[in-house]
Amino acid sequence: MNILLLLIPLSLMLLVAAIAMFVWAVRRGQFDDLDTPALDILRDDPEPAPKTTAADHEPPAATPPAPTRDAD
């Protein structure tokens, strides 16, 4: 019976702590948008950008002019 003198105040302190954490979470906006996180899992990830190399950024090499035919 003496254990109740310890357990009742301990449980009341835990209850007050749980209520305080809940109030803190509500004030911080943790429960404002409950639908978006559930829908985010259904969206496809964006396609990754293709990897580029240094050769992709260089201008194309100049090509020699085509040979011309001399008229004889």
UniProtKB/TrEMBL annotation:
It holds the Pfam family FixS. It comes from Marilutibacter maris. It comes from the Bacteria. Residues 38-72 are annotated as: Disordered. This is Cbb3-type cytochrome oxidase assembly protein CcoS. Residues 61-72 have a biased composition (Pro residues). InterPro entries: Cyt_oxidase_maturation_cbb3. Residues 41-59 have a biased composition (Basic and acidic residues). Signal peptide: none annotated.
